[in-house]
Design brief:
The protein has eleven helices and twelve strands. It is an alpha/beta fold. It has three domains: 90 residues, Winged helix-like DNA-binding domain superfamily/Winged helix DNA-binding domain (Arc Repressor Mutant, subunit A); 99 residues, Periplasmic binding protein-like II (D-Maltodextrin-Binding Protein, domain 2), CATH 3.40.190; 101 residues, 3-Layer(aba) Sandwich (D-Maltodextrin-Binding Protein, domain 2), CATH 3.40.190. A five-stranded mixed β-sheet has the order 4-3-5-12-6, with helices on both faces. β1 and β2 form a beta hairpin.
Length: 305
């Protein structure tokens, strides 16, 4: 009785190649292997089956009755496998692919519901989300590494060749761990921040510019030396383990504030509001799948603002 455990794909490929070419030499050439390699495949296959599958003649090789029987199944199996591989390849080609850059605050709020909706309509869609500073993401957009950036409006001088669609405005907030001394105070003046270590957005980012403007207009000057990060995970962890005060976009900590895991200080930060929206390359046609992502993001932003 044949042992299928020893049967390999190459055994069936060798049998089909010999049947199609009528000689071991031509079969070897078709398979891009040596003639001894083909002979070894067929010898192994005959040992597995327990019967002679080929007869050698002056004209070449011919299949025996068992060989012809096995050939029918081998050919069918290889065709089925090939069709499966082709189907996978077609799926990969047909599946939409969207590369999105998002500020950490947007990635934590607006983007997840939007992409959940899009992925539900396109189960095979390939979605890549990259976070970073606005400048980093805009640079990747210009290089063609991203299809879309969801973030703050850049300086007009940086928007050449780009289009921007505003979704909402967002303020910066100052947050601390629950139980912090400042969290219990009903009214605060910006001057009180000078007494605490501050965690600020990275220098050079749009949100840091808004934060610096807040301090300057409050007559505090620029904090020195601050701790800087746009990494939401680090900022959250550091604040929970210290008495520092974190200046961060509201969207990045919305869930934590709603569930009491962080406390927002009672400071008027309305002047830090900035437009958040969709940035695209103006010179590129927007494919259908990206249109769908854009619509999903618009609906998600409208639902949360």
């Amino acid at each position: 009785m044949a042992s299928s455990d020893r049967l390999k794909l190459r055994h069936l490929q060798g049998l089909v190649a010999v049947a199609e070419n009528g000689s071991l030499v031509r079969a070897a050439a078709a398979m891009s292997v040596t003639q001894p390699a083909v002979s070894k495949m067929l010898a192994e296959l005959e040992d597995i089956v327990g019967q002679r599958l080929l007869d050698r003649t002056r004209q070449g090789v011919v299949l025996t009755t068992p060989g012809r029987t096995l050939l029918r199944y081998a050919g069918s199996s290889l065709r089925t496998l090939r069709e499966g591989l082709d189907a996978i390849a077609r799926d990969r080609i047909d599946a939409p692919s969207v590369r999105i850059g998002a500020l950490p605050n947007v990635a934590a709020t607006v983007l997840p519901p939007a992409l959940h909706t899009f992925a539900g309509a396109h189960p095979r869609a390939r979605l890549h989300v990259r976070t970073g500073s606005n400048a980093q993401l805009i640079g990747l957009l210009r290089q063609g590494e991203l299809d879309l950036v969801v973030g703050r409006l850049s300086e007009p001088s940086d928007m050449a060749g780009l289009s921007f669609e505003q979704l909402y405005t967002e303020v910066l907030v100052f947050v601390v761990r629950p139980g912090h001394a400042l969290a219990r105070r009903r009214h605060l003046e910006p001057a009180v921040l000078a007494n605490w270590r501050l965690v600020l957005p990275d220098a050079g980012t749009r949100v840091r510019e808004a934060a610096d403007h807040f301090f300057m207009t409050a007559g505090l000057g620029l904090p020195d030396p601050p701790m800087e990060t746009i990494d939401v995970s680090f900022g959250r962890s550091f604040i929970l383990q210290s008495d520092a005060v974190w200046c961060v976009p509201l969207g990045a900590v919305t869930h934590e504030l709603q569930h009491g895991r962080l406390a927002r200080l009672k400071l008027d930060t309305s002047q830090t509001a900035g437009p958040v929206g969709l940035t695209l390359r103006a010179d590129r046609r927007v494919p259908e799948e990206l249109h769908e992502v854009l619509d999903a993001i618009r609906r998600s932003a409208a639902a949360q603002t």
